[in-house]
Amino acid sequence: MGTRKIDASPFQGELRALEQAIQACEAFPRGRLNAEQGFLLNPSLTLLEMEWTGLAAFRQDPTSRPQPGEELLAVWKAPASDEVVLQKLSQNELLAIKIVHESMDLHQAAREGGVSLGFIDAILLQAVASGILLRAPSRLCRPVASFPASLSMAEGYRSAPTFTLQWHVTQACDLHCKHCYDRSDRTMLKLEQGLRILDDLYRFCQAHNVHGQVSFTGGNPLLYPRFKELYQAAADRGFLLAILGNPTSAAIIDELCTIQVPEFYQVSLEGLAEHNDEIRGVGHFGRVLQFLEILRARAIYAMVMLTLTQGNRDQVLPLAELLRDKVDLFVFNRLTLFGEGASLQPVEVESYDAFLADYEQAASRNPVMALKDNILNRRRQLNHEALFGGCAGFGCGAAFNFVSLLPDGEVHACRKFPSLIGNIFQHSLAEIYHSPLAERYRRGSEACGDCRLKLVCRGCPAVVAGHGLDPFVDRDPYCPSSLDQE
User: Fold this and answer.
1) Is this structure's pTM higher than 0.85?
2) Residue 225, CA atoms < 13 Å, CB-side half-sphere
3) Which one has a higher pLDDT value, 39 or 452?
4) Which of 251, 399, 429, 434 has its CA 20 to 30 A from that of 274?
5) pLDDT at residue 106 tops 50
């Protein structure tokens, strides 16, 4: 039995217009699918107001039956795949097109639509993901001249798509850890100041074509009296949110999740129960394990951080094994000799390479163990292994893809050591970020100037400074001296 053909004559003209739009899109030069600043309508995009519905389906299946009725079709070339896309647009996609086409102020668009600024950002980014809109590349990009002769496998770490504000909203803490690097009193952050900071961060991210993340920490950020209001305000502006804090109740976590589920919640352990509780207080180990169950029950990404010292180095691997089915990620930082942490003994330089070898071997068998320390990249290059993003995803990210903000407005390149680059109550985040001092931290140590791994390493300036060395001049004392710098 043959297939009955549909008479296409009633809609032949519209079908022809559709085919012409597709052919023009196929011929559109891929080199023009880019934006220099902000958002841009995909120049290959064509909108077709049809008086028949179902024409897209008819092209794929001639036995389908178009029906009289209005339908808006869109045709465009996807920048990522170079393929032609034909589909009906959603209301959110049409709104994204309207906002960009009319150069609407995003705050105004949110007010007129009765939605949050974060909602507007989300639909714009979704339109970018589908290719309807183009977005200019991140302006957080390491200059080529500052990173000569880098390994080709490290080139992907030159540009950062996300900027993180590590926000110490309070110095208040319910613990008194023996390695705490700052117990100083600082002026309490006012909520009104916090809201202005979030607006400043939003402007910074828009101007630099990046997504923003706020990592709330302290002290214990949950002890900030108006934390939920600040968390809500950050969510309303469309930021990714994370918490670096102490264990809390299931009720508080549920309240936060009704606002926005955090990207991750990070807690700390300093070894097995006895050693950890000696550092962080009696009963802390057990409270953390109970809290990890709360996070797991709510599918919140759970991270555990350890500060590595000579006193706990032999407990790292047993702790990681204990956490195998309890967390999503386990990492460590080396101790920085500042604040009360200066009284502890850092891991021995001479034995550190052997520790890293043991850690890497264990990590190959334990999926929750992640690589973080930049120095690992130097070992991996020597052993002809794949490189990774290092401490902050781009080697040392100090004053590059993150800064640390304290309650009194001080902005530091990195919170692990004194690295003041400005005060956000006196200058905008953009002014601080582009200051000569911040640029000096981004350049890193002169000793790393010609290193081919500079994009993914440069050691840890906080460790350098903690050992009485100059982070702008000297090399990380844990850097393997056997690596030949070309």
Assistant:
1) yes
2) 4
3) 39
4) 251
5) yes
CA distance 185 to 423: 17
Q: Comparing C-alpha atoms, which of 399, 352, 377 is closest to residue 458?
A: 377
What token pair was written down for 238? 């469309």
Encoded tokens for 93: 């996609």
User: Any idea which of 27-41, 244-258, 324-338, 420-434 has the lowest mean pLDDT?
Assistant: 27-41
- Token representation of residue 473: 């001049």
Strands (E), 89-244: 133-135, 162-168, 211-217, 240-244
- Look at residues 77, 52, 86, 80 and name the one whose alpha carbon lies nearest to residue 66: 52
- CA–CA separation, 329 vs 326, rounded Å? 9
Nearest by Cα to 152 from 377, 455, 371:
455
CA distance 60 to 380: 50
Helix (H) or strand (E) holding 85: strand 84-88
**Residue 36 has what DSSP assignment?**
S
Q: Reduced to 3 states, what is the DSSP secondary structure of residue 148? A: coil
**Tens-digit pLDDT profile for residues 165-188:** 999 999 888 877 767 767 677 899
Residue 149 pLDDT greater than 90, yes or no: no
**How large is the greatest C-alpha to C-alpha distance in the chain, in angstroms?**
89
pLDDT of residue 176: 77
Give the list of residues 6+ apart from residue 111 with CB closer than 8 angstroms, or none: none
The C-alpha atoms of residue 291 and residue 252 are separated, in whole angstroms, by 12
Distance between CA atoms of 141 and 259, rounded to whole angstroms?
32
Can you tell me the distance from the alpha carbon of 49 to that of 447, in angstroms, rounded to the nearest whole number? 62
Q: Say how far apart CA 200 and CA 208 lie, in whole Å.
A: 12
Retrieve residue 282's tokens: 């009696």
What does the H/E/C string look like for 169-181? Answer: CCCCCCCCCCCCC
- Tokens at 124, concatenated: 């714009």
pLDDT, tens digit, for every residue of 195-247?
Answer: 999 999 999 999 999 999 999 999 899 999 999 999 999 999 999 999 999 99
Closest CA to 45 of 142, 131, 147: 131
Lookup: tokens for 103: 């150069």
- pLDDT tens readout for residues 244-286: 999 999 999 999 999 999 999 999 999 999 999 999 999 999 9
Phi, psi of 116, rounded to the nearest 5 degrees:
-80, 160
What is the pLDDT at residue 297?
98
**Reading across the β-sheet that carries 46-53, which strands appear in turn?**
46-53, 67-77, 84-88
Report the alpha-carbon distance of residue 470 to residue 478 in Å, rounded: 14
